[in-house]
Design a protein that fits this description.
single chain; mainly alpha
Amino acid sequence: MLSNKYVRTIIMSRVLLQLGVWVRNFAILLYVTEITGNDPFYVSLISVAEYAPVFLFAIVGGTFADRWLPKRTMMISDMLSACSVFVVLLVVLSGSWRALLLATLLSAILSQFSQPSAMKLFKQHVPEEQLQSVMAMFQSLSAFFMVIGPVIGAFIYGHYGIEVSLAVMGGMFIGSALILSRLPGDAPDEAGTIRGSVMAEMKSGLSYVRNSPVLRNLGAAFAFAGLAAGLIQPLGVFVIIENLGRESGFLQWVMMANGAAMLLGGVLIMSKGKAVKPQTLLALGLLVSAAGTVAVGWSHQAGLTILLQALTGFFYPCIHIGINTLILRNTEAAYMGRVGGIMGPVFMGFMVIGMSTAGYLKGMFSLSALFTASGVLFLIGMLLLLPLVLREEPGRHMRNQV
């Protein structure tokens, strides 16, 4: 895979982007927490600035990614992100720390234009039989930075402060753009051929997903998986305190086990999972998540809980690798940005719904009941995929009529 210049270059770019994002996330979080005295309003605004663009700009960014040349779009997005960071750095030096929220917001918005362009290049330049391994490589990269990213971000902020952290973040974005410049030039036919209004093209993308049996089932499964994940995400600390009788700080060890297992699972799929159909990987990941989530909710032993978290973490890459591979295989290049811009908000939207109701439901039901409900939602998502799993080639060469 790494012999493919597009894969190699985009992976190198993503390494720098991940470094920049994790430095941003933790440096800004720690700085805002420190300067506001743990004010929950401003701390929550960081998450809003990070996730709101997924809802507001994913479909818009995907639509423009389908219209524009992918290499140019990615490079311009990275350079604009870097410029915004250095502008914010100047504002922070003048004493206005609230501009940090703007840095998070702008870089998150621009990523909604850059990410679909990378998927579009993979669709155009990576052989279909290698797509699953490439997605596994991306998932492994994300899992790797989930483990070391917080450490790096906290270290840079703790030793050098917010100004150096912002400078490092801007430098990473510039480095990513320079690496992307090594890609072959965009061919004129890599830009979308349709030049209707943006709104018309967005509607065309929605119709494309609606008229595809594979993408429809995938979107429904994605929604249930997002709701299931969101329902239990805020409750992890209660598992530690109530079920295990430990201090809340013990959560970091559980999460480290989950992240390390996720990295190992992604690497294994990358090297050994080529023969497994992506829909089978996805169904397996949802099934193990269902069983593991229920078991975590009922476990009262620290060792067993860590083992279960490692097990679910090991199979969790199956979900995202399976989804991304299915999207790549069952979407025409001209619609890659819009399909990604629709699928991402589906997962995020339902995850936020789950997260927003978790606290309320926690006051009404037991912890084990909520984790059981989450497991059932994962199971429903898996059952929705059965028609795809049972088909020999589920829409691999489908033709949508839009």
